[in-house]
Amino acid sequence: MRTIPNLDNTVIIQHFIIVPFKINKVFDFFINNNLSKYYSKISKGHKYFKLRTGERLEIGSIIDCEESADNQSIKHEYHVSDIIKNERISYFSKPSYIKIKLPWKVIDSKSNTYVYYDFESSNPDNTNIRLTIGIQFSSIFEKIFSIIFGGIVPWKNHCAEEMEGLKKKIIDTL
What we know:
The chain has helices at 23-31, 34-42, 140-148, 153-173; strands at 10-19, 46-51, 62-69, 72-84, 88-102, 105-123, 126-136. By secondary structure, it is of the alpha+beta class. It has one domain (9-173): Alpha-D-Glucose-1,6-Bisphosphate, Chain A, domain 4 (2-Layer Sandwich). Helix 2 (34-42) packs across helix 4 (153-173).
């Protein structure tokens, strides 16, 4: 998948929404750093999403982000790697720092995170947005462990909540 090396160690999470606006308007909503403005409002697990410099997303922009799902929290330092107007925005965090709070212990871990927003016109007045997240573990064993013990489930739910919240915020804003 795109720029994710070693897919064997990677879990892919996706969610798809349709918003009733032209693609250029929706794409500009993302580029103009509106995620920073609305991030904490679109999901209960969102802490912050801050562009370090500038007012717009550009290739090379750095974004500091923190979010949580159930007993897990994660800090990202995202680097914007790809912007194709009205088509795609992608960024990655290598590594992302994870805390998993168990009743008897806190586990610190790391993974790489790859994020892709893909945009497509479904008709002149609607835009499809697909969020794809690749969570890349250090090994196949960490990936399997996380899947078997349900560590990915909260992030799948979080992804859906985030995208549905984003859809509502786009509709309310545009």
